[in-house]
Amino acid sequence: MMRASVIFLFYFAIFVHCRNPVYLENNGYGTVLVAIHESIEEDPLLIERIKEIFTSASSHLHVATKYYTYYDSITILIPKTWSDDLKQAAATTERFDLANFIVDQPSSIHGNNPYTKQFLKCGEPGLYVHLTERWIKDEEYSWAFWGDPGKVIVHEWAHLRWGVYDEYPTQDNEHFYYDENGHVQPTRCSEAVTGQSFDIYSRGKECNTNPSDGVMPSSGCRFIPDLEDNVATGSYMYTSAIESMVTFCHNDAEDSKSRHNRLARNKHNKQCCYQSVWEVMLQHTDFEEGDKPAVDINVMPSFLVVQETELRIVLVLDISGSMDRNDRFELMIQASTKYIGYTVPRGTWIGIVEFDNTASILSYLIQIDDMETRQELIDLLPDGTGSGTSIGSGLEAGIEVLEEGWETPAGGILFLITDGEENTPPFIDDVIDELVEKEIVVDTLALSDEADPGLAELSAETGGTAYWYSESDDSTALHDAFTDTITSRTSSSTDTPVQLTSYKTSIDAGDILSEYIYIDPTIGRHTVFFIFWDFSGNIPVDVVIKAPDGTIIVDGDSGEYYRDDSTHTIIITINGVAQSGQWTYDITNTDTDDQTVEVSIESKSVDSSSYPLRLQSTVGSELITESPPLVVIYAEVLRGYEQVLGANVIATIERPSPFQSIDLTLLDNGAGSDITKDDGVYSAYFIEFVDANCEQACRYGIQVNSDNTDGEAYTKTTSSTGAMPTDYGAIPVEGDPNLIGDFGRVTSGGSFQVDDSVHIPGIGDDPYPPSRISDLESPTSDYDEQTITLHWTAVGDDLDQGTAHYYDLRYSTSFSDILDNFENAIQITNKDLISGDVLSPSPSGSSENVTVWLATSGTGTTYYFGVRAVDEANNKGDVSTIAQNTIVPIPSSGLAGWEIFLICLACITVIAVAVCAILYMYWQHKENTKVGVADKA
Fold this sequence. Notes:
Elements: H1 6-18, E1 23-25, E2 28-30, E3 32-36, H2 44-64, E4 70-71, E5 73-78, E6 89-90, E7 101-104, E8 115-117, E9 128-132, H3 133-137, H4 139-146, H5 149-162, E10 176-178, E11 184-186, E12 195-199, E13 205-206, E14 221-225, H6 267-271, H7 277-282, E15 302-307, E16 312-318, H8 328-343, E17 349-355, E18 359-367, H9 371-378, H10 391-403, E19 413-418, H11 428-437, E20 441-447, H12 455-462, E21 466-469, H13 477-487, E22 498-507, E23 512-519, E24 523-532, E25 542-546, E26 552-554, E27 561-564, E28 569-577, E29 581-588, E30 595-605, E31 613-619, E32 623-624, E33 631-639, E34 642-645, E35 648-654, E36 662-665, E37 681-686, E38 698-707, E39 714-715, E40 738-739, E41 744-754, E42 781-782, E43 787-793, E44 806-812, H14 815-820, E45 826-828, E46 833-835, E47 847-853, E48 862-870, E49 883-886, H15 897-936
Parallel strand pairs: 2-4, 3-5, 3-7, 5-15, 6-15, 7-9, 16-17, 16-19, 19-20, 20-21, 32-41
Antiparallel strand pairs: 1-2, 8-9, 10-11, 12-13, 12-14, 17-18, 22-30, 23-29, 24-28, 24-30, 25-26, 25-29, 27-28, 31-33, 33-34, 33-37, 34-39, 35-36, 35-38, 38-41, 39-40, 42-43, 43-47, 44-45, 44-48, 46-47, 48-49
Helix pairs in contact: 2-5, 8-9, 8-13, 10-11, 11-12
Pfam families: CLCA, VWA
Transmembrane segments: 900-923
Protein name: Epithelial chloride channel protein-like
C-alpha cells in the first residue's frame, strides 16, 4: 500500500538535496552536521574554531531571521584516522558525503572562499557548504577578506536551507543597472548601501562619476561598499562583510535600510522572479504560520564531536519461488559476488540475509580485510530458492544483524533486492516505522515490473535510493545499482572506483565483438574488466585485451585473468597502474548459439592522493505524484571540486515494457531546468512518460554516460559563486581552460516511479508550457539608429524540449509594468525589428538575437524588456528575466573635462609652435636671399 504523505515528501526533499536532514524544533536547528575530510591533518584547534564560528553564527542567525531561528545543536564529524580521544562518540548516521558543511582542501576554482553547492530552483535547498581549514583557523585572514566568519555562515546557510541566491553581481555585465530615471546605479541590496566606484584596471581611479548621464561605466568599474559607517542593514545575500549588515532584504516600505532592490541585476532577482530574499524565506516551512519568534532565549548551540566509522551494509536477498524466472536468482548471486569481491571497500562491514515466506540470517556483520574475508562472505550467499514473499521478515532480520554487537543500528544500510509482491506478513508497512525510528537506511532494487510497488516509498522514507532492473536485453541496471550503492556514498574517497563503461550486447554465434576504452591520466590504479556471459549459454566467451603499448592479456597467459563458471563471470585485473591511452578488447562467442554479454570496466584514481574524473547523477524525485508528470535528471562531471564543462552527457531512460528506452541529452546552458550556465551541472526535463499496463508499478530506470568525443571538455578555472570577499585577490584568478582529453564514464541515476493517480498525457495532449527564459539580456544600444539589441537562449515547446511556436516580446518604460502587468506592456512584432524574428523560434538551447527599433529620440529613458515563449497549444511560459537599456549618445571619449581642456591646450600650443617655426624659417629664407643678392653686387 502506497503512502505518499506531505510529511514524507518534505522529508525526502530535505534528505536528498540537503543530504543530512536538519530539524527545526522550538526555533532551534538540530543535527546540523559539519564534517572534516580525511585529507585534513589532525588538529584540535580546528574543532575549537568550528565551535567558535558556529556559536557566533547562531547569534547572527537569530537576529537576521527576526528571532525565528538559531543553531541548537551541531555535530562535528572527524575522520576515522584522527585520535580516538578527540571524539565524544562514534558516528552513526553521520558521514562526510552527507554533511551540511564540509571542511576540505581549497579548490582551484574557489580557493579558500566559502561557497554553497547549489543547482536547484529558487526556494529549493542547496547540497552542502564548502569551508577550508585556512578559512576556519586563520582568523586574521578570514576577517580581512570576508569579515565576521559567523556572518559568512549565515550567508551560506541562506543558500543551503532556503534556496536563495546572491544579491551581488556575479557576471561582468551585472555591476551596474539603469533605474527608472535613466540613471546608472551600482548593483546592491539594499539601495541604502553606500560606497564608491573604482576602475580595477586603472589603479583604482574613480569611475561612474556622473550616474545621471545614462552612460554605463567602463568594464572595469566596480562598486566598493563602505565596510564601516554604512547606514544599510541589509542584505546578508549582498555581503556579510559590512559591519551594519544584520538582516535580509525585504519588502517593508517603511525600512529603506534593508528594502529589496528589484531593479538590481543579480542572480537572486533573476532566479527568484524578483522576490525579496525574505519573501522566499517566508515560503519555507521554517516560517510557517503559527511559529512565533523567540526573543529572550539562549542561542548558544551544543556541540557533539563524533568519529566516522566504516560502512555497515546488510544484503537482504529475495529467494522466493519467482526468483527462478529469467535467471533472476543466478543474476542476483552474480552481482552479489562481484559486489562483495571487488566493489565494497576494504574495512566495510557486510552481513547477509535471505528471505522467502520467512527470513534467515546467513551472516552477521563481518569486516572485509582481505580476499580471504571476501571469499568467506561469498561462500555464505544463498544457494537456492524457496516460496512465498515476506519482505518485512527480511527487513526485520536485517535490523537484527545491524543490532548484533553494536550500540545502535543507526546509520546501517539494508540493501534489499526483490522481484515479488509481498504476500506473507510481516509486510513493509509493518516495519517501516521501526526503520525510520532507528535511522536505518534502505536501498531497494526492484527486479522486474513484478516487484512490490512499496519499494520506492521504503527507500524515500528511510533516505535510501530506489533502483529498478527491467530485465530488458540491453539493461545493465542490476550491476549498476550494486556499484552505485557504494560509489554514491564514498565519492569523496580516492579509493572509490569509477565506472568507465557498462553495457550489454548480443554477440552472434562465432562472432567477435571488438571495442575499446580510454584510460585517462586521472585513473589507472586497480583497473578491472568484468565480462558476464549468458546463463543460457554453456560455453564461456573468450576475452583478449590489448594495452596501448601492445601487451596482450588472454586466458591462461596471465595471472590477472580469472574465470568463474558458476557465476558466468570473467574478471581481468590490470596490475599496478594501467597505461594511459586506448585499451582494446575482443570478446569472442565460441558457442553455437547467440549470447548476451555484459561488460563493466572500473578503475581508481592514478594515486591515492589525487582525485579521479568522476560522473555523478541524481533524479529530482523518486516518486512522481503530480499531473502532468515531469522529473529533472541531473549529472555532474567532476575532478574533486573542479567542474568539467563541455562534456557530452546522455541519460538513457528505460521505460515500462513494451516501450523503448529514451536518450536524453543533459545540458549545462543555463536554460530550462539548468539554473547556471557553465557550472558543471548538466540537466534536462524528462516528460516522455507512457501509459503502460504495469503489473505492479510503472518504474523508469536511468543510466548516464559521459565522454569527450567532441574534444571540447575542460575544467573550469574560476567561479562566480561564494561569499563576496572584500578583495577579489582572495579568489584564484581566471586562467586558460584546461583541456581534458579522451575519457569515458558511466553511472546509475537510480530510478523513479509514477503513482497510480498520475494522469499520463495522451496523443494530442499538450499540458507542458515552454520553460521560462532566464537569461534575457540587452548588451548594446545605438543612438544614431535608435535601436536596442536583445539576446537569450531558446527554450522548448514542452519545457526545454523541442521548439516553441513564437515569442511574446514586450517592453515598457516602467519596471513594475513589464514585470507585474506584462499583458499591458507594448508588444514588439517583426515590423519593429531591424533583425531577428519573433515568429520563428530556434530549437531549444539555441542562441536568439534581435535588434529592436524604438520610435523615440534619445532622451535617456530606460526601457525594460520581457519575453515568454508560447507553444502551438497557446501554453505560455513564465515571463523571463527583465533586460534593460537606454538610448543615449555615447561620448567619443571617456575623458574628464579637465583632461579634454589640457589636450586642447596642448594641441593649440603645438600648432602655435609649428606656425612660429614656419614663420621663422620663412624669415630666415628671406634673410639668406638678401645676403646672396648683396654678395653678387
